[in-house]
Write a sequence for this structure.
């Protein structure tokens, strides 16, 4: 056995359900109208506990249940009904409004009133008085709506321009660009760098900052829409690695004067303006400016009234890449100080800086990432945050740190992966978590971690089913890095038999397949396949998330190389297991996992008999600038890396059965990837299978998902 | 056994090769660089006998062999070398021209000189003098080049405009349309109605008539080209049944005055102007004007100098459709008379009319189609033509008719399917034919049918191979129509065994799959599959060619209905054969045959276990106006017919394994057909397979063909 894969199983967790029944999963029910029940983490958007949220000033949280709105207090005791649908509808009719069939999505505006959107109007309902007020008159669809929480003014886009509507006023055109290549108020940088919106209200609502994206230079990619006859083409802007990219600027619209100024960001046109952010007093605006090479970041301060550049507060460089995903976090009590996320010491941690760029201190430390900042307490002596547990990187907990003493307290005491919703006064926390033992739990804790009460405990959705056994362990990479794997044994496992294996792989950055959540993160399709007699195996190779920057950056400039090395450590382990049929190993993944699947089929052809690659990247030079250049630089700068990762160049190695699958409207990994790959196969008599999902983009959802799950099942069943 | 399929085998021809060797076909050699040897009918474009042609005035024909140009005389005796490549190159160098690696494609201009195109120049070579003259100076590519045989003036197109170059003059712009929707000098009506070119020189070369096509109203269809990165879209004009179509007119350009007039065709914009044609004296121009409904044809005469409409000479109507595919054929000796093709009595025959529209007489008659008119003799007492043999509709012979006595002589005496090349004086005929017994034969006969000499006899390309037995027979349709079938037994046939069957189907108009040519028309892929142990069966159902108009029009307005009925007669026959495994029947076809394959899989799901449908029409409302409306009328006029033929509506019936295959650049059956079909399958969990050939249009050729043949072989092997 290869030295590099000597097994150091220090942790194998396995569990069995006490199954009371013998049901088997079917793909029909996993994709049917009741499928949500298999996904206990969706509790807040399903009928179990929708619209769980805190009120605005008092520590009371509310939720819906059976069309009744409840409020719950931060102490033991019964929750109180505060509104039922009947009463709500009665009051609607009284106010001359139409009845509703179900509760709208509500947002607390004060502790006694909430707003909601109905027929493109923003309506406020006073729960005590039972009365309504209309905040905005009837406008068009609020595309990219961003609602200012105090005034309820709405910033929204129509096509490429940005508008605001305030109260009953006519909509105000913030921008009036005729050129469709100039896009205002939309997200930018293809969702990288934490950009998921294009508008940013100032803290007091007096200004609206917005992205302006000039795509004139960006190439079009044609996406065919067959819903029309004849088919039509939608040209999307798709900047490919090394090609011309979008040019960004940030405008600030003054609600009073209705004038816009633009920040004087200077620099190269194709730099990234990331993590835009207001100072609490609305006087300054901050941008994390990243160069196109993504190896130099400047936190810049601008005058929000003139757009003038004031100074670069701090700068970070890396020989590989810097990845800004957080704004500075300002103290209210110390206006000259802020917390700052940095990965510079190897893990993502919080640092404390002055606005003059002076590093006061490193706040958090250790060999695990801080995932997100939650809040300060009201005195700003404590900070609350979510971090990866240093002793068990598969789970994340809620922590507090005393900023004076640096004392850290793990507030969430249960094993598992935790999220948190902090109460208005920051004295309480809704602790939401999932673990291998608990499908989904919600409890109320106080800011010291004391459990006040259980709020919700999801039923085991599989309690009536026979369920395969899942275990998690670690293996050692060639440089002794610990690699986590998950192994699902086939149902009715018989150690004397030989079973086929399906390796489910993702393998790319920003994702961790194995974590201490329900089923250790295994999908229901994987559980189904285990019931059908397959061993299901997954390993998080170097490059994946939550293991620190060295672990992630191991793949830099040479995608697939280290990932495959690590995956092969998993394969060697599988081959060492007496119940694995080493001649029947398959592999499956989607997106980066599709790339990995195809790469494994082509670069390890002796190992893998069957592969299913969904929406795979085939050639990184056809992938987008922002993500692609971070990990690969440009094709000009890194020709060897691009060549080695271009799977077209390895098509001739194919020995096993490979099925490529792609949504024809994929605007993330464009269809050209698989089309070019099969063209290469066609021209060289390399037999490969291919399937498309017309009209679907990067994921196949909805009615076609059952088809996809069935197709994949059949393909492994028939060929593996 | 069903009454309708009672067997009336009146003709079963079978043959065996005396195989001297035991070679088996491989798909590699059938698609390799020497694959032409399996296609003996390509003799004139392969190295066997390229460029076979008559001289211009004397009855001498020439051909190339091993880079030597030979001439051959209409008597027994040796052929004479008249030019070898060495001499030609020596003379080229002498004339200051570059040597050539192989003989150019030559065209006799006089009996002693030929012209050819080299580097976009038209060059004349005098064989006696060994001298060259350049007719045109260097111009751009002669797209759609049409060369006037006397002056060697070239009409050609550049994008949407028409040009002429005469001698060394600068090119003359015949049209100057800026609007790309106006297309001049190109073919029209999507190649229907015998339109394969867009320019028509007058008999003496003084005028050039040309099509002008206004496509402003025709919808675009987007075809993706992945050879560029990012992919680009080519918008093609694609008129779909019932939709807006192209508008045609015909211009006449006067070479002397350089003025253009347009024919005053009147009528509806979307009528078809078919079979344009000059009177021998250049004074008149004739068009077969067909209404969009394609059920009323007018042969119209126009004044070629003014464009004025003179008269409608004759008119033909049909309750189904009229399909004009021939111009009038004028007598030189009787300027007021012409021959005319019509299917009005049930078969395509020649009629004699006066220019005043008076029917003088029906010339040919009988229950078989005249396929093509060859020529008159010099006195115009005889006409020569190719016709289907009335007693055996699988073959076509060369006939002469004495126009006075109506005596018909079959000039080609050998069994088989004949083509003919008539000598300059019409006294001799090169008779080219193929039959089940002869791969390809060429002999010289005289105008009475007397064989002068053998010119060429192709070797049996399969003489070294073990070859499966082919037989042909007839079955009876439900209305007693005789249906021809071809049956290929598996190699090493053992009557006591059960074999799987592949039905190869086309089934649409304008094609006859079974004819008395080499292998009875079976493809080499079919012969390969028979070697692999499959029975290969093909039946020409009603709707197919060369059986008269009633046979063809049986499918009118209800495509797939009668075709399936007839195909099922074949299936019942197969099931009656003791060696057929009735549980293992597959079907395969391309284009209309892809439509038929899909229709058979969906409408006879109990019969067919496996199907491979190439480039299938799925919904005739997405097929082109000209072909589609002929057989189906418009979707508005024939909603039931379109519904019954729309295979989307039957997708849920699928039981067997169905593989759809499509070239992504298909501009005949657009990709939307298969995309919409699989989308229907995806949304309803109907498992179907799909494959694409990026960059290929309606046929898959070139390097990818081996891949396709292999994929189809594998699919049947693995699933049938």
């Amino acid at each position: 056995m290869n030295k590099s894969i000597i097994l150091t199983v220090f942790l194998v967790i396995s569990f069995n359900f006490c199954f009371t029944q013998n049901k088997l999963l079917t793909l029909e029910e996993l994709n049917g109208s009741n499928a949500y029940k298999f996904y206990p983490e969706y509790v807040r958007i399903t009928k179990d506990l929708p619209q769980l949220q805190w009120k605005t000033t008092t520590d009371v949280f509310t939720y819906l249940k059976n069309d009744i709105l409840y409020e719950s207090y931060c102490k033991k005791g019964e929750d109180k009904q505060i509104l039922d649908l009947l009463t709500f509808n009665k009051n609607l009719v009284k106010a001359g409004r139409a009845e509703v069939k179900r509760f709208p999505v509500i947002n607390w505006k004060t502790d006694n009133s909430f707003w909601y959107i109905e027929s493109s109007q923003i309506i406020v309902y006073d729960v005590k008085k039972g009365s309504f007020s209309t905040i905005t008159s009837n406008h068009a669809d609020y595309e990219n709506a961003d609602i200012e929480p105090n005034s309820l003014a709405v910033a929204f886009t129509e096509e490429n321009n940005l508008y605001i509507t305030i109260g009953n006023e006519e909509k105000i055109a913030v921008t009036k660009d005729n050129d469709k290549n100039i896009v205002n108020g939309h997200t930018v940088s293809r969702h990288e760098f934490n950009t998921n919106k294009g508008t940013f209200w100032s803290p007091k609502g007096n200004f609206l900052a917005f992205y302006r994206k000039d795509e004139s230079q960006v190439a079009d990619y044609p996406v065919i829409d067959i819903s029309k006859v004849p088919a039509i083409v939608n040209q999307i802007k798709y900047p490919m690695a090394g090609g011309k990219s979008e040019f960004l600027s940030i405008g600030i619209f003054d609600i009073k004067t209705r004038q816009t100024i633009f920040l004087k960001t200077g620099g190269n046109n194709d730099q990234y303006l990331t993590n835009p952010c207001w100072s609490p007093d609305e006087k300054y605006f901050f941008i994390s400016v990243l160069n196109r090479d993504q190896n130099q970041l400047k936190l810049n301060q601008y005058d929000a009234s003139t757009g003038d550049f004031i100074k670069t507060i701090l700068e970070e460089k890396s020989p590989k890449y810097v990845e800004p995903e957080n704004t500075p976090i300002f103290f209210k009590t110390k206006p000259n100080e802020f917390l700052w996320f940095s990965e510079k010491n190897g893990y993502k941690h919080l640092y404390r800086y002055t606005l003059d760029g002076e590093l006061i201190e490193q706040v958090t430390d250790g060999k695990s990432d801080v995932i997100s900042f939650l809040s300060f307490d009201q005195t700003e002596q404590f900070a609350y945050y979510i971090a990866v547990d240093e002793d068990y990187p598969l789970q994340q907990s809620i922590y507090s740190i005393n900023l004076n003493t640096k004392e850290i307290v793990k507030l969430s005491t249960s094993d598992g992966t935790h999220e948190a919703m902090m109460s208005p006064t920051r004295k309480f926390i809704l602790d939401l978590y999932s673990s291998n033992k608990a499908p989904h739990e919600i409890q109320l804790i106080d800011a010291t971690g004391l459990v006040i009460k259980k709020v919700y405990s999801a039923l085991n959705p599989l309690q009536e089913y026979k369920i395969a056994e899942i275990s998690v362990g670690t293996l050692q990479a060639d440089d002794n890095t610990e690699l986590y794997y998950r192994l699902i044994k086939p149902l009715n496992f018989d150690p004397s038999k030989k079973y086929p294996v399906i390796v489910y792989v993702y393998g790319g950055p920003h994702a961790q397949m194995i974590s201490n959540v329900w089923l250790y993160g295994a999908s229901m399709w994987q559980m189904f396949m285990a019931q059908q007699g397959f061993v299901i195996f997954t390993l998080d190779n170097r490059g994946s998330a939550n293991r620190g920057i060295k672990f992630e950056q191991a793949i830099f400039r040479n995608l697939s190389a280290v990932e495959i090395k690590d995956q092969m450590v998993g394969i060697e382990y599988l081959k060492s297991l007496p119940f694995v049929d080493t001649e029947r190993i398959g592999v499956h993944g989607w997106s980066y996992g599709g790339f990995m699947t195809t790469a494994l089929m082509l670069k390890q052809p002796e190992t893998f008999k069957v592969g299913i690659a969904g929406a795979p990247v085939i050639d990184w030079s056809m992938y987008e600038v922002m993500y692609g250049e971070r990990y690969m630089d440009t094709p000009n700068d890194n020709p060897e890396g691009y060549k080695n990762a271009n799977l077209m160049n390895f098509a001739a190695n194919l020995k096993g059965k490979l099925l490529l699958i792609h949504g024809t409207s994929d605007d993330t990994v464009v269809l050209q990837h698989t089309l070019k790959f099969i063209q290469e196969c066609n021209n060289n008599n390399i037999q490969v299978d291919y399937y498309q999902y017309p009209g679907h983009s990067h994921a196949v959802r909805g009615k076609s998902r059952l088809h996809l799950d069935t197709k994949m099942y059949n393909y492994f069943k028939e060929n593996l």
Observations:
- Chain A has two domains: 3-39+461-719, 53-412.
- The two ends of chain A are 25 Å apart (CA to CA).
